[in-house]
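We read letters as residues; the fold follows as tokens. A sample entry reads:
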Amino acid sequence: MKKKRSFLNFGILSLIVCAVGFGVAPYAMAHSIGDILMTPQPPAELLDGDPVTVRFTYVTEEERGVRIYAIPYTKGGITPGAEVFQSPLYPVGKGEGSASFTVNSMDIRVDQVQLRMTAADDPSKILLEHFVDAIILFSPEPIYAWVENKHRHSHHHHAY
């Protein structure tokens, strides 16, 4: 009797382990984003309002499809003045797409871009957040003028 019971417990235990093991792995693989290519390629210097486009491939098991956004980050928070373009509906399965954003704020440095996958019908349901390091400077004027102005202002404030 004793032997039988310990065997039964062991059987139940291994069953639980299997169920948990199989439950976790496919879910982790259920959504992914890869082959990321940014245009322009970082490090980049742009004018305010210039778009950055991120191309990617994706995999999802979300039956109703997903939306994928590119969101610029500065020092761990969403970049001030960020404008994130709408996402088309990406169907369940595998595919490729692109997401764009721009920044309308004076002299700001984007240091990461987040690719965010959400449920198609519920943007608050975030399925995946994937961060990519990217240095992108946004400024109100071309960078050479910007450097000169900064230099000029650092000495004296002249009335020009």
Summary: The longest strand covers residues 122-139. The first helix runs from residue 2 to 29. The two ends are 98 Å apart (CA to CA). The chain has two domains: 1-29, 31-155.
